[in-house]
Amino acid sequence: MRQFLDFEKPIAELESKIDELRRLSRPAASDGDPARGTDAPPAATGADASGYSIDEEVSRLSEKAEKQLRATYAKLTPWQKVQVARHSERPHALDYIRRLVTDYMPLAGDRSFSDDQAIVGGLGRFEGQPVVVIGTERGADLDTRLKHNFGMARPEGYRKAKRLVELAGRFGLPVLTFVDTPGAFPGIDAEARGQAEAIARSIEACLAAPVPILATIIGEGGSGGAVALASGDRVLMLEHSIYSVITPEACSSILWRDTSQASTAAEALRLTAQDLKGFGLIDEIVAEPVGGAHRDPNATIAAVGRAVAAALPALLALDPVALRLQRRDKYFAMGRQGLA
Amino acid sequence: MSWLTSYVRPKIRTLLGKREVPDDLWTQCDSCKQMIFSKELEKELNVCPHCGHHMRASVPDRLRWTFDDGQFTRIELPKAPVDPLGFRDQKRYSDRLKENRAKTHLDESLVVAHGRVGGQNAVVAVMAFEFLAGTMGAALGEGLVAAARLAVLQDAPLIVFTASGGARMQEGMISLMQMPRTTLAVQMVKDAGLPYIVVMTNPTTGGVTASFAMLGDIQIAEPNALIGFAGPRVIEQTVRETLPDGFQRSEYLLEHGMLDMVVKRPEMRERLGQLIGLLRERDAAKAA
To answer: What is the ipTM score, two decimals?
Structure first.
C-alpha cells in the first residue's frame, strides 16, 4: 500500500478510483455479460451508453492523475519537499549501495568503541572501479530503523567514516557517499564520547583526502551530521532532497518560538536542491521520476548512478595535490558570489 | 512596594547626591550572586573573587588579556555578503545585524589581531558571543580564513578563543558550509607546520564545536565552560533523562578525553606562551 503525503490527496483519490474501476472491470469481463460492466459505476448514466467503457474511463482518469502528479511535483513548496525527502518509501543508502556497488564488502567499527550502524560502508566496485562507499542509513521498517538509529549517528559512526576515508586515501580509491540523515544523534552518550570532535575529524579527513570524494544527498541532509560525509569535491542532490543547517521544525521553535511555523521556516532556510544550486553550494541536481523517488526507486538509483559515473572521470584524472587545491578553492569561493 | 524600594533607594540616591555614580559600580556574580566592586572584578579579569566563576569577557578585554602588555594590532577582515538569503523571521536578519553592530561596536562575531604572546609572535582570533550569540556565518568563515592566511604569512601560531551558539540559522546552508571552510583554514595552518591552539570559552556549541573548535593541536578550556555539539535542552528532550551533574562542562570534557587542560583566565597568557615556546623551539633554533 503506497503512502500518500497530505498534499498528494487529490492524486490518491484519483488513483484509488482507478484501482476500483479496474477491480470492477475484471469480473465483468470474465462474466461475458457486457451490460454488467456499464451499470456498475453511477457515472455511466451521463455517458453515451453505446460508447462508454470502463477502460476508457480508466485511461481518462489515469491521464488526469498523471497530469496532476506532474503539476504537483513541478511546483512543490519547500515544506512539501521536506516531506518528500523524508518519505518512508524513498530509497535509502543501502538500496543505492546494493544496486550500484558490486562485490560490496561491508567494513565495520571505529577501532575504539563500537560499530555504529547509522553509518554503513565498505569496499566494492562501481562500474568496475574499486571504491570506498559510505552512507547514512535510516532503515526501512521498525526493526531496521532501530538498528540504524533512524540515520542519526553517534561519534563511532563518524569515526568509522573517517577511518574508511583514510583507508581510501592510502589505496587510491575514490569515495562515494550517500547522505540521508536527520542529523547527528543528540544524546548523553554521544556527547560523552565527543560527538563534535568526531564530526570535525570526519570533515577534516574528507577535505584532506588525496582521492576524490563524491557525495550525493539522497533524502535529508541534516546539518553537521550530513556535512561530516558531504564535504566532497562534487556534491550532488536529488531533485526533491533537502540540505539544511537545521530542521524547519527546530528553526521554527527557535526563531518563531512556535513549532507551527515549520513551513515558513522551510521557505526561509532555502533548503531545496534548486536554491542551493542557485547559491553555488552544490554542484548538480539529479532529476527524480515524476512523483518523486519513492514512485520509482530503481529509476532513481539508476539516475544517481549515471550522474556519479559522469562526474567521476574528471576527478580521477587529477593528481592528489591538484585535487586538494581544487577542493580548497571550491569551498573558499562558496558564498562569495556577488562580492568584488 | 517594599520599604527597600520606597525608602532605602531614594535615601541612597539623595545620600549619593549629584556625584556621578556609574550604574556599573557593582557587578553581581552570575554564579554565587555576590556583589563585586567592578574595579576589582576588572583587575581579576572578570573572574569572581568569591567563587572563581569565569564571567563573560568582551572582545577588547580578551585581546588585552592575551597579548603581552595588552599591545596588539587588529586586522581588517574581508567583507562577506550581507543577508544572502533575504532571511526574515519575526525580524529581518539585516535589521538584526544592524542592531548588533550598534550594540556591540563590532562588525561581526569574529575579531582577529596579531602581536606577541609570551614574547612570541601570534595571531589571535576571538569570537564575540555578544554579537548574535557568536553564531557562525559567512563573515566568520572569511575572518577565520584571513586569520589562517595571516598566521602562515607571519609564520606565527594561530590561537582561537571560541564562544558560540553554533551555526547562524539566518544564513541557512551558507552558514553550514563554514564548517568545511573553517576546517580548510585550519588545515592551511597545520600544513605550514604551525601550532593551532583552541581556547574554548563559555559557551561553545553546535557547528562551531563540530568543526574548527575541536581540531586544535592543543585544546584548552576555561573552567566550567559549556561545550558540546547538541545543546543540553535538545538532549533532554530527546532522551527524556535528567542530565548528569557537570554534563558538557570543561571539567567533564577533560575527564572524557576531549581537552588537554582547563586553564584559569589569569594563567592563560603564560600558559599559551609556554606552549608556543615548546612547540616552536625547533623553528626558533632554525631561524637563529
So the answer is: 0.90
CA distance A233 to A312: 10
- Which chain A residue has the Cα nearest residue B216? A197
Judge: A204–B187 Cβ closer than 8 Å, yes or no: yes
- Consult the annotation and say whether B32 binds a ligand: yes
* Whether A152 contacts A189, CB under 8 Å: no
Residues in chain B: 288
Question: What is the Cα–Cα distance from A246 to A251, expressed in whole angstroms?
Answer: 6
Residue spans of the domains in chain A: they are 6-75, 84-333
The pLDDT tens digits of the residues spanning A173-193 come to 999 999 999 999 999 999 999
Q: Which residues of A touch B241 (CB under 8 A)?
A: 188
Tell me the chain B residues in contact with residue A337 when contact means C-beta distances shorter than 8 Å. Answer: 81
- Chain A (316-335) residues lying within 8 Å, Cβ to Cβ, of chain B: 327-328, 331-332, 334-335
Do A335 and B248 count as a contact with CB atoms less than 8 A apart?
A: no
Is the pLDDT confidence value at A2 over 90? no
> Is there a contact between B167 and A245 if contact means CB atoms under 8 Å apart?
yes
> Per-residue pLDDT tens for B235-285?
988 888 889 999 999 999 999 999 999 999 999 999 999 999 999 998 888
Query: Does residue A1 have a pLDDT over 80?
Result: no
Q: How far is A192 from chain B, CA to nearest CA, in Å?
A: 6
Residue with C-alpha cell 545620600?
B15
Mean pLDDT for all residues in chain B: 92
CATH 3.90.226.10 fits A84-333, yes or no: yes
Query: Is the pLDDT at A75 greater than 60, yes or no?
Result: yes
In order of their start, the domains of chain B are 23-55 (no CATH), 57-287 (3.90.226.10)
Tell me the HSE value of A258 on the side-chain side, using a 13 A CA sphere: 8
Rounded CA separation B91/B96 (Å): 7
